[in-house]
Specification:
single chain, 161 residues, mainly alpha, rod-shaped
């Protein structure tokens, strides 16, 4: 086998590995988005449940304790919501240079050089990895705030009843 054929086969394998990594990192982003969606449903459901529990009573006992619990609930709601929104917010800054594997590079000509394709696929995989990491960090920060919000909502509903 000639050196040129060996190099071409090695380049083809490198491109396949890079595309596999690109696919894996896209999966990581999708997994993070699923976590965000679940957290958003829990967050929204907690607010609806708290409002329904508190608003469904005609004679809520407004005490300093209930007021403090509702204030803490609002703080936890805002902190959790901040991180959920940060995780949802799309990242629109384009990789430099523009990449035909990314949404901002649609319409760019694809390079015929396998090494360039490999570099571009790895660059996009790295970008997707960064996006997944940021999303997961915000999910990690939102979970305790959401749990606290839910607990405070239940305690406020019980204390106000």
């Amino acid at each position: 086998m000639s050196r040129e054929v060996e190099q071409r086969e090695a380049d083809e394998i490198s491109v396949k590995v890079a595309l596999g990594a690109l696919t894996a990192f896209q999966g990581y982003v999708q997994q993070a988005d699923a976590k965000v969606n679940t957290l958003l449903m829990v967050h929204t459901g907690g607010v609806v449940a708290a409002v329904a529990a508190m608003g469904g009573r005609s004679a809520i006992r407004w005490t300093p304790v209930v007021d403090g619990l509702l204030l803490a609930f609002a703080v936890a709601f805002c902190a959790s919501g901040f991180h959920i929104v940060k995780a949802i917010r799309p990242r629109l800054d384009a990789p430099i240079p523009l990449n035909p594997f990314g949404i901002t590079g649609i319409g760019l000509p694809h390079p015929y050089d396998r090494r360039a394709q490999c570099e571009q696929a790895w660059a996009m995989a790295e970008l997707l990895g960064e996006i997944a990491l940021v999303k997961n960090r915000h999910v990690q920060r939102a979970v305790p705030w959401t749990a606290l919000m839910l607990c405070l909502g239940v305690v406020a509903a019980v204390a106000g009843g």
